Inverse folding.
């Protein structure tokens, strides 16, 4: 049985107080995120690490402050969350070589990961039997990824101690919707054994 871990948008602009779209308290997730990512790498589990990848004056910036602009420090993932032997899938449609990569950096330029033309082909290529999801922000990008994966009909776990929210009410609603649709909440200790 093969699994895939989805590490959602754990980038400097979101995780640290100096980031342009800081999620309060997100920096406390880093040890748990590190544990999950490195567990995946050590156990041959597909690790897909989504990254916001915006251009200057991106249309999304009319709704949110500018963040994760390609080429800036804020767009990067902290080194603690990176594995060696990475591959990248860009925003543009196309085949991307990922064979043998321990971590796939999956660029997206909208909140919803499924808007990427590369999302469905990647799921098909991975052919995973189950999914584990974590990252930021619970009620936005994590929600889109978790619910899209639930729609595959395969088991999906959302790591409750490896997500962070901007609104406790919206987060609670996301968790309710996720579990009502068949998803299951788990802790990093349960996932990593």
């Amino acid at each position: 049985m093969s699994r895939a871990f989805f590490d959602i948008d754990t980038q400097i602009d979101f995780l640290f107080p100096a980031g342009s779209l800081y999620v309060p308290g997100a920096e406390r997730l880093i040890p748990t995120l590190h544990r999950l990512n490195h567990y995946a790498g050590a156990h041959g589990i597909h690790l897909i690490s989504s990254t916001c990848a915006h251009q200057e004056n991106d249309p999304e910036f009319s709704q949110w402050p500018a963040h994760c602009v390609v080429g800036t420090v804020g767009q990067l993932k902290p080194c603690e969350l990176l594995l060696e032997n990475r591959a990248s899938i860009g925003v543009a449609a196309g085949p991307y070589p990922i064979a043998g990569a321990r971590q796939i950096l999956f660029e997206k330029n909208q909140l919803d990961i499924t808007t990427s033309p590369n999302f469905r082909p990647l799921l098909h290529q991975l052919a995973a039997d189950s999914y584990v999801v974590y990252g930021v922000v619970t009620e936005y990008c994590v929600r889109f990824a978790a619910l899209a994966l639930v729609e595959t009909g395969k088991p999906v776990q959302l790591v409750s101690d490896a997500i962070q929210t901007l609104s406790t009410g919206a987060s609670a609603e996301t968790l309710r919707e996720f579990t009502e649709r068949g998803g299951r909440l788990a802790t990093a200790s349960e996932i990593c054994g």
Remarks:
- The CA atoms of residues 114 and 120 lie 7 Å apart.
- The radius of gyration is 15 Å.
- The chain has one domain: 3-192.
